[in-house]
Amino acid sequence: MKKHIVLLPGDGIGQEVIHSAQGALTALAEEYNHTFTFETHDIGGTAVDLHETPLPPSTLEACKNADAVLLGAVGGPKWDNYPSHLRPEKGLLAIRKELGLFANLRPVKGFKKLLHASPLKEEVVKDSDLLIVRELTGGLYFGTPSERRDNGDAVVDTLAYTRHEIERIVDNAFKYAQIRRKHLTSVDKANVLESSKLWREVVEEKKAEYPDVTVVHQLVDSAAMKLITNPASFDVIVTENMFGDILSDEASVLTGSLGMLPSASLREDGFGLYEPVHGSAPDIAGQGIANPLAMILSASLMLKYSFHMEKEAAVLEEAVHSVLEDGYHTGDLHIIDGHKVGTEELTNKIIEFI
Ligand code: NAI
Ligand code: MG
């Protein structure tokens, strides 16, 4: 298959880890007879420096014409005091909205070699393997009005959803549950919020189309507790934007490191942007020691969700398991009696496995 991929390295370690993903994908293409072509564009602080905007029109245009987009990370202290329209994160919010990426997927799975590194007890995290499906372009982060009133002494934010917005994300989540362990937890606050009542209605209606999937409704506060006391009880979780933002950061402690978590942001037709959950890590940028595995796992999600290359996606995931099992790791991970290596050496181990 021929696929054209836009690379958006962004800032800090984004520049380093994207290079690893490109190397792994190139090796995979060779091994499995695909042609992957790459085109690199600016986003975030780097784009602000070069083009005076965090999302240049040329970047957006290139993404619209690509088969998929891989993004590193954006931001850094250099741009912290820039005016809000020149903040690197603005580029990230804008590209999600412009490309219509309404479904954010975060798979969270413990790696055997890293279980001891989680702050939670090993027997609690041991069997956790869950997928958070977060609505990404609606709800509290996009609703209007969102403003200060009464000379700044009052504020309003708006949590707004349409039936259509809820239906498409819930439908997505049912589909993922169907190909996983057929268990869907819908998280809301239906005892208080009107938006959650409609959310629950939609889930109840959709249920009929997926009779093989078991559905549980759970309030967000108790879901937050259960996520760290009994994570193995979850399969797919579907929830609105802000609840998903918070729960997915909470779930990240299950894996023991930020450097291991990938994410996918998808549109209805399967087009997607893939990025690690971590940021630009300015404290270690430029030193060649960043962990490339979250970026490589994000590339694996791209192969699976956008290109339907199930086998190639699985090989990349196995490569990550395998190098960890062999004890290779970057400095952010702790493996007992392991071999600490840099970004490039760890990437080469991945490529050797492929
Ligand atoms: P961060 O994720 O960049 O770093 C947090 C800590 O984890 C640091 O000590 C860092 O060295 C370490 N770390 C993160 N990823 C790593 C990796 N792959 N390998 C080894 N160590 C890793 O979060 P922080 O420090 O809060 O933010 C730094 C900048 O990144 C800020 O400007 C922030 O706005 C931005 N950011 C961007 C995101 C994105 O582009 N999606 C997400 C989160 C933060
Ligand atoms: Mg967040």
From TrEMBL:
Binds 1 Mg(2+) or Mn(2+) ion per subunit. The record marks 141, 189 as: Important for catalysis. InterPro entries: IsoCit/isopropylmalate_DH_CS, IsoPropMal-DH-like_dom, Isopropylmalate_DH. Keywords: Amino-acid biosynthesis, Branched-chain amino acid biosynthesis, Cytoplasm, Leucine biosynthesis, Magnesium, Manganese, Metal-binding, NAD, Oxidoreductase. One of its GO terms (molecular function) is 3-isopropylmalate dehydrogenase activity. Pfam families: Iso_dh. It is an enzyme of class 1 (oxidoreductase). PROSITE patterns: IDH_IMDH (PS00470). Its EC number is 1.1.1.85. Belongs to the isocitrate and isopropylmalate dehydrogenases family. LeuB type 1 subfamily. HAMAP family: LeuB_type1 (MF_01033). Homodimer. This is 3-isopropylmalate dehydrogenase.
